[in-house]
Design goal:
alpha/beta, D-Maltodextrin-Binding Protein, domain 2, 5-stranded mixed sheet, 13 helices, disordered C terminus, LysR family transcriptional regulator, WH_DNA-bd_sf
């Protein structure tokens, strides 16, 4: 078995089972990949991929296990390279982080401003997308860290660290009927068309869960990833907006009335995640300390070496921590 064969195997899986696309991605020939795949399957005496003629149409059950272990092997190869760089104290290279538009625009600039002063020779490669998209990149080891929000189970190979919590904000024009109410309830809110973030998995939406618990049916007429786009369509009269609290600017958005959802919707949790097999360079540890100052070095070690913990248990631990969390939440929301 060769490392090159494992590299080819991963490339095929990451390119929709297309050997042609895999060859183009890693700059090699299609016949070369096909030959090495046959040799690997012959050596292991098992089929890694399901076939329809010459076309790959799926991954066998044992193939999925082989693929997962191949990813770990290649991760360790990368760790050895990182270790060499760490020993030579080279704080250069590329630090890749996948995140959502809200985190990228409203939270991370402050963190990166401080971080970049400490590591000016380090290139920061920011990947934006939905939570599902950046988690997929993390699982494929295309990025180092993910920073996102929501209740998502990431699996036993992923370290998931709760960082801070935040409420959502309701936005509507100055002359809207909701402005006449002293207190807005969820029942009041769903009487109007809603403009909010899009979500590919309705089961993970705390807004929809809260409405379901109260037997309410929200009328969501427009969704977008970008809070500024949501605000634009609120101004156009599409409906009442629901955005992250940090995305509301009292100066730039003074034409809109804001109202916190803290009494009607559960708080959202932003977390940082990375592969448990990733070699953490010193700049990565420093970034975690900067972004999640309530996590001590001892706690980070526990996250790294403990067994898999569900997101609900992590959230419970997070909510019972001391005032350092509350202090950081105020900084983020400021």
């Amino acid at each position: 078995m060769k490392l090159q064969q494992l590299k080819y195997l991963i490339a095929i899986a990451d390119n929709n089972l297309s050997i042609t696309s895999a060859a183009q991605k890693i700059f090699t020939s299609q016949p070369g990949i096909s030959k090495q795949l046959r040799l690997l399957e012959d050596e292991l005496q098992t089929k890694i991929f399901e076939r329809n003629g010459k076309q790959l149409v799926g991954i066998t059950q044992v193939g999925k296990e082989i693929l997962a272990r191949a990813r770990k092997v290649m991760q360790e190869i990368n760790n050895i390279k990182r270790l060499s760089s760490e020993i030579s104290q080279e704080d250069t290279g590329c630090f890749s982080i996948g995140t959502t538009q809200t985190q990228a625009q409203y939270v991370l600039p402050r963190t990166f401003s401080t971080f970049h002063k400490e590591y000016p020779g380090l290139k920061i490669d920011l990947h934006q997308g939905t939570t599902e998209q950046i988690i997929e990149q993390l699982n494929k080891q295309e990025i180092d860290f993910v920073i996102a929000s929501g209740s998502v189970e990431l699996g036993p190979d992923i370290v998931q660290i709760p960082c801070y919590q935040w409420d959502r904000t309701i936005l509507f024009p100055q002359d809207h009927a909701l402005g006449d109410l002293r207190k807005i309830s969820l029942e009041d809110l769903v009487q109007y068309p809603l403009v909010t973030y899009n979500f590919s998995d309705k089961a993970s939406s705390s807004l929809l869960r809260a409405c379901k618990e109260q037997k309410l049916e929200p009328n969501i007429v427009f969704t977008a990833r970008d809070a500024d786009i949501i605000k634009t369509y609120v101004r156009k009269g599409f409906g009442v907006g629901i955005i992250a609290s940090m995305a509301y600017d009292p100066d730039h958005d003074k034409d809109l009335i804001s109202y916190s959802t803290r009494d009607m919707l559960p708080k959202c949790t932003t977390w940082l995640a990375f592969n448990k097999n990733l070699f953490l360079k010193q700049y990565m540890k420093d970034f975690i300390e900067l972004f999640a100052p309530h996590i001590s070095q001892q706690e980070l070690v526990r996250y790294l070496y403990s067994e898999h913990t569900s997101s609900s248990e992590l959230l419970h631990r997070f909510q019972t921590k001391d005032s350092k969390i509350t202090k950081f939440q105020r900084v983020v929301s400021a």
